[in-house]
Amino acid sequence: MELLLICALVGLAVIFKGSDRQLKYGKFTRKASVIKNGRAYYIEEAEFESYNDALHYYFKSVEDYVAEENPLDSSFDYYDWSFTILKFKMNIIEIRLFRSYKKIQFIRSEEQVDIENYLRDNPSLSVM
């Protein structure tokens, strides 16, 4: 009986374990760890029902990260493929919107890197 109770508790703990997802919205599709030019990056992707949902949660995700900690620097482009890069004390994050795929992608450097060096690594950082 005690063994059954322990198994049930462990099972519930696994089911209700807190998520370590960085993108809080959308359907999780994949994640990856990548090393580019000696720097490690974590990449995560989420998909949405529609482009409008993806657009809304793209801006909501950026807003959430800015609310957590004021970025030291930022860069963004909303013309073609939307992206926002936020430099924090310990790392850089980027949130990208892929319009034709109804997806957003999160990229986080695992160490401090300036935006200029990050942009050099950037073209090959993807799980697409």
From TrEMBL:
Entry protein name: Regulation of enolase protein 1 (Concanavalin A-like superfamily)
Species for this entry: Aureibacter tunicatorum
